[in-house]
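Sample pair:
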Amino acid sequence: MSIGLVELLKEKLQGNLILPSDKEYDESRKVYNGMIDKYPAAIAYCNDVNDVITCVNFSRENNVLTAIRCGGHNAGGLGIADDALVIDLSLMKAINVDAASKTVKVQGGCLLKELDAATHEAGMTVPSGIFGTTGVAGLTLGGGLGNLTRAFGLSIDHLLEAEVVLANGTLVKASAKEHPDLFWALRGGGGNFGVVVSFTFSMCPVHTVYGGPMLWELDDAEEMMTWHHDFMRTAPNELSGYFALLTVPPVAPFPEHLHLKKMCGVVWCYAGVLEKAEEVFKPIRDKKKTSLDFVGPMPVPTLQTLFDGLYPPGLLWYWKADYIKELSAEAIKVHVEYGNKLPTPFSTMHMYNINGAASKIGKDETAWNYRDANYAMVIVGISNDANDKEKITNWAKSYWTAMHPYSMGGAYVNFMMEEGEDRIKASYGDHYKKLSLIKAKYDPGNLFKVNQNIKPAVA
C-alpha cells in the first residue's frame, strides 16, 4: 500500500494501525503457528464494528489483499498474508451471558478460554474445541469440534445468530429467519462470506465433567485402538474420548518414569450425571491396566485448557487431516507404525469423535458436510526447533499419505494447511456448489479469499 493510502486508513480508523516501520510490527505479525512467517502491509486492530466496516470498505475500494485474524490459531496461518491488510479483531472481546434464555453473545475476537470462563459462571457451556487459546470465530466458522461433540454436537449446532460485515461494507444479521442462506453457509463454510463480528449461541447446562487423559503402552496401541473404535460405537452420547498417539511431556504432573516415552491414550470427557461416572468408566478401567489415569471430576474450563501450557504459541506446526468413518485392521497398523516414528516430543495424532449428537443433525442442514464420519483425524508434526521443519513436515505428509486411502476423502477445514482447490472441494463435497453460489451473492469479488477459499460461482 502506498503512503497515501496508509494515511487515509489511519485517519478513518479508531483503532491502532501497525506498519512494517513500527517497533511492534514483528511481534504483531506473529500467529500461533511458528511455521508461518508472513509480512503483511498493515495490521489494523479494530476497536469496534465501525472499524471493521472501515477496513472492509478500504480494502474493497482500493483492491487490497485482505486477511481476517481473530485468535490467530488457524492451522495454515490464514489470518495473515504477505502484503495484505490484516483486519484484527482481537480487541473485540465483549461477552454477554443471558442465563435466563440460556444464550451467550460473544464478539469475534474472543478466545475459547474467555468464552468458557464467562459461561461457566452461569453453570453452562458452549460446545467448542480442546485448546483455550483457540479463537471462537475461526473454530465456529469451520464447524467447532471438541470434547463435547458427542454429547451436544458441534459449535455450529448451537449458533443462533451471527452479525456479519459483508464485502460491500454493510452489517447484517444471519439467522434462521434473516439471510438464512448466509446463516447456512457460515455454519462450516469458514471465513468466506464476511467478517463475523459477533456470534450468539445457545448454552448447554454443564458445569463439571468427568474427564482427563488415560495412557497405555505404545505396544498396546493396536489392541486399544481396536477396542476404542468398537467401544465408542455403543457408548452413551454423554461420553467422548479422542484417541491419541503421543510422547509424554517431561513435566509435572506426569510421573518421571513416563517422561519422553511414546504412548497411546484417550482424553475422556463424560458430560452426563456425575454420580454415574464411575459406573460408565468401569468397563474402560477393566479393559486394560493403564500406565496413567488422570481421569476425574473437573470444571469444564479446566478440561478445555488442560493442554494449553504444553503447546505455547510459537511452536512450529505442520498439519494434515482427514475424516474417517471406519478403522480397519490395516489402517490401525498404519497408525501404530507412525506412532512409533513420532519425530519430536510435541508431535501427535488425534482422532476426534464426531458421532453421537453431531450425527443427529441432517447432513444438509449446515454447510459442514461429514455428519456420517466417526472421526476427524489430525496428524501434526510439531517442534520448538526451526531445524526440525523438514523432519516434522515429512513425517506428517508420509503418515497422511499412508492413511488417506482409508479416509472419506475430505478433511476438517480448521485442520488444513494451504492444500489447493481440490482438497477444499473434497472437504465440502456436494455442498461446494451451493456454497459457491452463496459466495457469489455475498462476496462476488472474492474479497475474503485468504482462507480455505470457496470461489464465487460464475454466472
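Residues 208-415 form a domain with the Vanillyl-alcohol Oxidase; Chain A, domain 3 fold (CATH 3.40.462.20).
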